[in-house]
Every structure is written in structure tokens, then in C-alpha cells.
Amino acid sequence: MHAMQYEVTLPADYDMDVIRDRVARLGHLLDDWEGLGLKAYLMRERGVGGSPVNQYAPFYLWDTVEGMNSFLWGGPFQGLAGDFGRPTVRQWTGLAYEEGTAGDASAAVAVRHRRPVPEGVVVADHMADVVSSTRRLADRDGAVLAAAAVDTSRWESVHFSLWTHRDAEAPEAEGEVFHVLHVSRPGPKTLPRGRQW
User: Fold this and answer.
1) Average pLDDT, rounded, for the chain
2) The model's pTM
3) Contact (Cβ atoms closer than 8 angstroms) between residue 194 and residue 96
4) Which residues are bridge partners to 4 per DSSP?
5) Distance of CA 22 to the CA centre of its chain
6) How many domains does the chain have?
């Protein structure tokens, strides 16, 4: 499993209905994308839910590198880059994936929590703790799924989770909260469960 995200930060007065309309028109294009486990079309709106910015920030869980590369090199990513400029694309190596207690429900919000891997720790022990916390996150009420991954170029781990909670309700997870506009799940059953090594 590979995790990927890019963020398109927009002006403070940007009409975020443009993003909502874009996802409504184009979101279905990845519903059957080969090699994609999941794409969550995410948005933050300045002043809503504590967000300091207007941002479009899709998050991906890929089954295959080939699927990810075909998306980046020749797929819909080129349309986004043409409309908004080419954003930096963050990638993390998968550590864990778990279906949540509400795994079949629609997701309303997503939470992303990035944190550094502390200096001086035994990396294997730390990663095992990250995997355990992914399972605990998925076991909470309203969790659709939870995933964890690591960027070894920065020694940063990321927890990503989807929740059934409405915007007014805070999910039981620490991190930045995003509104979910659409979820493409062509391959959720093919994403490997549990620890990824």
C-alpha cells in the first residue's frame, strides 16, 4: 500500500463551490481506476471547523505503484495541474490499514495526523506502536477506516481516518479535519489489512 496526498491552497476569498462542483462533475472518474484502493476527495474551508485556509487536498491509498504512476503521468492529475498548477505530491509507504466499525457507511469527514518519528527510538518498536494505534482508531465509534504510513525522507508518520460524523461533530481522532466530498473505492477489499511488513 502507498499513501499519497497533494494540497491545493486557494485564496481566502475563493468560492469553494467551484471545488464542490468540480468533484461533483469529475469525482466518478476514479471510481474504477486500476490499482487504486481509495481516493477521498477532501476540502477545508477557511473559518469552518477551525480551518485557517481554503484547500482542496485529496488523499489516496494505492494498491499498486503502476496505478499511482498511471494517474500521475497520464491521468486526471494532468487536468488538475492544468487548472491549478502542479502541486507537490507527498508519498508515504504503507504501515497499516484497517476497516472501521462503520466500514460500510458513507464518510463525512476525514482526519489527517502527521507527526515526526522521534530521534533515539527503536524504529521497529515505534512503527509497531503506530500499527497498534491504527487498529484502536478503527475500533472507535463512527470510524469508516484508518490507515498509517511513513515518509522516511522526513521520518514522518501519518494517520489517516474517515468518519461518519457530520461537520458539527468532532471525530475521536487528533489532527486536521477535512470535509469529504466524494470517496472513490474501486479496490478497498484489495488493500492489505493490518501490518504491512
Assistant:
1) 93
2) 0.94
3) yes
4) 60, 91
5) 18
6) 1
